[in-house]
Amino acid sequence: MKMKYELERAVAISAAIKASALCRDVQAGIKAAERITKADSSPVTVADFGSQALINLEIKKAFPADQIMAEEDSSPLSSSARLKFEVVNRVRRIIKDISEDAVLAAIDLGKSKGCSVGRSWAVDPVDGTKGFLRGGQYAVAIALIEKGKVVVGVLGCPNLALDFRDESSERGSLLIAVQNQGAYMRAYNGRIEKTIHVSQVKNPAKAGFTESYESEHSSHPRAARIAELLAVKKAPLRMDSQCKYALVARGEVAFYLRLPVRADYQEKIWDHAAGSIIVQEAGGMITDINGRALDFSAARQLSENQGIIVTNGSIHEAVLTAAGTAAAE
Asked: Could you report the per-residue pLDDT of 18-76, keeping only the tens digit for each?
């Protein structure tokens, strides 16, 4: 019997694998010439552009009527002939004979504003670019949003070990979820999928948690205060990207805090869509810091939400209460 969203799931997996191959290739020999800085001071690399081109092409080939919301556009490449050459060259290693114009057009397929009706894919071609540049964690994130709800999510985490607690574990984790079908993980070089579940910890004091590596992305001092209020003894596990969602979904930590450092900051949809459904299908819970469900129907930002709290579900109310206390102090 064919499962709902079976083709969408397969296409997202295929796109994540191809994009991850390009990213791994770039990260293995990243050069200064292969990165630029965007207007908001965030870095962007050959991998961001090349990965987005591959993903967008895969989606549009299978679902030509679907919209795509993706982080990058090709305009920065017009001012850097060297970077443009590198992007096209990297994509040609996956898709031979593709033209420069076709690569640039593929990047620009991701300009959708999002919608509360119909279907739109949320794509982050390299989530955690600073981690990518450090040789650390990053993710290729792909999600399908239908009528404002995330229904399919795939996270490709090329540097994340299959068991984060085991140093000898194989690196490279692919996490997959479809609405009402559970959450799964597999290695990049295998097809066997393993069901994943969140932690069963019920006492917050015994919980481990994760937060952003960069203090400019999430308030470390407020997270420390929340941990203190919960009597958490373990130090936070800091890393870049939606790999943090993966750790919660796999039960390696019990909660993840993304606490706004500015009152006016709005989270981007592609930074959370894929990770959110994977955690939910693994049995976890996600709200903003005010306890509201995440609203993926409002254009390209989570404009109706402030901050993110991700937990195993059992300790969600306790973490929310502590977050409220910390914010009020």
From this structure: 999 999 999 888 665 455 565 544 457 899 999 999 999 999 999 999 999 999 999 99
- Measured CA to CA, the distance from residue 32 to residue 237 in angstroms comes to 29
The verdict on pTM exceeding 0.85 is: yes
Give the pLDDT score at 36: 57
CA pair distance 128, 45, nearest whole angstrom: 11
What is the domain extent for residue 62? 6-195
Q: What are phi and psi of 309, to 5 degrees?
A: -125, 125
48 in active site: yes
CA nearest 80: which of 49, 126, 112? 49
Please check whether residue 1 lies inside any domain of the structure: no
| CATH number (domain holding residue 244) | 3.40.190.80
DSSP letter at 2?
P
Is 169 in the same domain as 29? yes
> Exactly one of 129, 210, 287, 311 is catalytic; which is it?
129
Instruction: Confirm whether 45 is a catalytic residue.
Output: no
Residues 190 and 213 both lie in one domain? no
- How many whole angstroms separate alpha carbon 190 and alpha carbon 221? 41
At residue 134's C-alpha, the angle toward residues 131 and 135, to 5°, is 90
Q: Which of 163, 195, 227 is the last residue of a domain?
A: 195
226 CB-contact burial (10 Å; exposed 0-12 / middle 13-18 / buried 19+): buried
Same domain, 94 and 224: no
Annotate 22-44 with DSSP letters as a single string. Answer: HHHHHHHT--GGGEEE-TTS-EE
Quote the number of domains for the chain: 2
